[in-house]
């Protein structure tokens, strides 16, 4: 992101040009930024430590184009629904490099995974093993499985994205999982290979990962004692924080170096072979690579209270501010260096008082028709978008070194009634 002639450019592409060509609202992704983040993961994790893998958490953002980009970059894919799995398979993503996560997998989803030779399924509840066995028997397969556990660590993040507490809908309590593992280990249809945990998202501390590891190490010891075998894989999740407003995104090494030092020290001290270590970064790969462009419409000045600047999108394309008070910053893309600053509230066009993208944003004075850019919307913008008020979902454009490519068409009104049967 840079300024040229008072205009905002993303990966050498003019935002005013993109808005004119594709319309607004518009999701814009910098392919260079995504590749840079993956390159950092390769340098500081994959190439630095043996027996490591990265699974991009597709819930952050997934289209066929994104699946192809992840495939080309040589990392794996984490999916949490039959829909995400279907998108990946439609993009010809190698199924053996897919892991299937999620807290309430349905039989049809599990069958789709087993039938298409997905690399592993991460079991999240006791009801899943019988369904996996049924599908594996039907297709004469043996399925690799991990068990997700909750270490009981309270991550310092928003309650809605904290997932490692004991009071969580995800995973098994760590003191109850061994009995389930024994069932898997005795099954002729599954191959138990290890454990998975995830303690939360948008994290800026590394010590909470280390505390979680201490708990999981005890589980590994109990597992060896009970089934007589070491685990083959340990998936430690992701959650690495990014910059939205004034936070400073830590480098991946800030998290991964102490994590890997602790893991290597532990397994060396026990004279055990270290299992494959997997991480699942999603937001930290695409969050800062994504931007949303809007056109300013109505401007209302409530004297002595606030000035509302309405945009042609809102909570339908970015629900995070309304959902958990997420904070963003704004740039007037066609007047980046404007000096006449004013404090405004940027609101959406939905029929909801809570459709506010930014409260008290300090930006150059704007007029109807100006172009607003909200950075760091690459994660969970499109993924959580909706058709509330029957608004249309935006198009998605990839840009790389000045070249723009439409990867997802804007919805049309016809799309809104496409599945109606009356």
Which fold name corresponds to the CATH topology of the largest domain? Answer: TIM Barrel
* Overall pLDDT level: 95
The radius of gyration is: 23 Å
Q: What share of the residues lie within helices? A: 25-40%
Principal-axis shape: globular
End-to-end Cα distance, whole Å, is 47 Å
The structural class is alpha/beta
Q: What share of residues are in beta strands? A: 25-35%
Tally of DSSP helical segments: 12
Name of the CATH class of the largest domain: Alpha Beta
In terms of per-residue confidence, which ranges show pLDDT below 50 for 5 or more consecutive residues? 157-165
**Major beta-sheet overview:** 9 strands, mixed
User: What would you say the CATH architecture of the largest domain is?
Assistant: Alpha-Beta Barrel
Secondary structure: number of strands: 21
Question: Concise description?
Answer:
The protein has helices at residues 15-22, 31-46, 64-72, 82-90, 107-115, 128-139, 177-186, 207-227, 252-269, 283-286, 320-324, 413-416, and strands at 2-4, 7-10, 13-14, 26-30, 52-57, 76-79, 98-100, 120-123, 143-150, 172-173, 190-196, 233-235, 276-279, 290-302, 306-311, 331-332, 341-347, 356-364, 371-375, 395-400, 403-408.
Q: Could you explain the architecture of this structure?
A:
The chain is of the alpha/beta class. The protein folds into 2 domains: 2-28 and 288-416, Lyase, Ornithine Decarboxylase, Chain A, domain 1 (Beta Barrel), CATH 2.40.37.10; 31-286, Alanine racemase (TIM Barrel, Alpha-Beta Barrel), CATH 3.20.20.10. Helices cover 30% and strands 26% of the residues. The chain is built from 12 helices and 21 strands. Strands 4, 14, 15, 16, 17, 18, 19, 20 and 21 form a 9-stranded mixed sheet that branches. It has an 8-stranded parallel β-barrel with strand order 5-6-7-8-9-11-12-13, surrounded by 6 helices. A hairpin with a 2-residue loop joins strand 1 and strand 2 (7-10). Helix 8 runs parallel beside helix 9. The longest helix is centred in the middle third of the chain and has 21 residues, at 207-227. The termini are far apart. The model is unreliable at 157-165 (pLDDT under 50).
């Amino acid at each position: 992101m840079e300024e040229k002639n008072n205009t905002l450019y993303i990966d050498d592409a003019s935002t005013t040009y993109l808005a004119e060509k594709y319309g607004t609202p518009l999701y814009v992704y910098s392919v260079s930024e995504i590749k840079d983040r993956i390159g950092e993961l390769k340098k500081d994790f994959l190439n630095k430590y043996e027996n490591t893998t990265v699974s991009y958490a597709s819930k952050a953002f997934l289209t066929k184009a994104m699946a192809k980009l992840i495939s080309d970059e040589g990392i794996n894919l984490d999916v949490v629904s039959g829909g995400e799995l279907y998108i990946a398979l439609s993009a010809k993503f190698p199924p053996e490099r897919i892991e299937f996560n999620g807290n309430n997998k349905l039989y049809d989803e599990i069958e789709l995974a087993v039938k298409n030779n997905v690399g592993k399924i991460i079991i999240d509840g006791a009801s899943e093993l019988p369904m996996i066995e049924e599908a594996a028997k039907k297709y004469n397969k043996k399925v690799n499985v991990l068990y997700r556990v909750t270490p009981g660590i309270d991550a310092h993040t928003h309650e809605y994205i904290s997932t490692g507490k004991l009071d969580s809908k995800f995973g098994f309590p760590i003191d109850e999982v061994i009995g389930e593992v024994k069932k898997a280990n005795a099954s002729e249809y599954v191959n138990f290979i290890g454990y998975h945990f995830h303690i939360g998202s948008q994290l800026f501390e590394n010590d909470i990962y280390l505390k979680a590891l201490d708990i999981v190490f005890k589980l590994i010891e109990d597992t060896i004692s009970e089934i007589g075998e070491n685990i083959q894989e340990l998936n430690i999740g992701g959650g690495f924080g990014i910059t939205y407003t004034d936070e400073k995104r830590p480098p991946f090494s800030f998290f991964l170096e102490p994590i890997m030092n602790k893991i290597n020290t532990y397994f060396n001290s026990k004279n055990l072979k270290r299992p494959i270590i997997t991480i699942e970064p999603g937001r930290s790969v695409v969050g800062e690579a994504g931007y949303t462009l809007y056109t300013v419409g109505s401007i209302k000045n409530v004297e002595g209270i606030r000035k509302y600047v309405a945009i042609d999108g809102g909570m339908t394309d970015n629900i995070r501010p309304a959902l958990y008070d997420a904070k963003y910053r704004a740039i007037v893309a066609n007047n980046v260096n404007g000096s006449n600053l004013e404090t405004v509230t940027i609101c959406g066009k939905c029929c909801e008082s809570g459709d506010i993208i930014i409260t008290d944003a300090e930006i150059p004075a704007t007029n109807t028709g100006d172009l607003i850019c909200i950075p760091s919307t690459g994660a969970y913008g499109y993924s959580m978008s909706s058709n509330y008020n029957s608004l249309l979902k935006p198009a998605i454009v990839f840009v790389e070194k000045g070249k723009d490519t439409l990867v997802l068409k804007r919805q049309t009104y016809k799309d809104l009634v496409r599945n109606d049967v009356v």
